[in-house]
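Task: complex structure prediction.
Instruction: return structure tokens for all chains below.
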Amino acid sequence: MIQDAVGAALILVGALFMGIAGIGLLRMPDLFMRMSCTTKASTLGMGFLMMAVAVRFPNLGTMTRALAITLFVFLTSPVAAHMIARAAYVSGVPLWKKTVADQLCNQYDRCTCTLESCPLVDDGELKDSREAGIGEEMATTPEDKKPKSK
Amino acid sequence: MNGVFDTVLSAGMAILTATVLMAFLRLVKGPSLPDRVVALDIMSVTALGIIALYVMDTGEVIFLDVALIVALVSFLGTVAFAYYVERGQRESGGSE
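Output:
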């Protein structure tokens, strides 16, 4: 009886998290914002559903399998999301036009395909010019993207 | 109590089906290739949830092994797509 109650609560919470992930995947304006909500919410919802399985069938084999699936997804989902986000940023997927900060703005060299960590931070003058460059690109990027997309 | 559990199971299955549908819409209209890869990833994770609900519905615990294999293949597919996207950009960027 208490197993049914706890299992039903876990199923409800997990399904709601996965539904939130689906809504975020459909409604968010940007690839990176979509990944930000879907990866975390869907992984957590799947963990809740596997815990519901472990509560519903409390024997050793089933609980071990549910825990193994949960651990595997919790380990691999951030890795996969990081690789996709890196590939998307490197291949030039456009950011949302209201994006405030793009911290990797001038640090990726498209000719040599290397990502500098922070190249201009030791010189105050160059750092100021880099910040000016970021603001300039923020101002010009939406106008540059719009005619190409239409 | 069993009726309540079955109702919650049906509601969870409905929500997960709606999630798969929304991910499929993103897969159809996603503007770039990484959007589609993310939609496929979410669809596979939702498939894991559907397998969990099916296991609780029927009591066939053996399908948890299927869920483990689905998780493994989904991770490998996502990594392969990321490698493909990044290498394709790298080769085109190097030729320019």
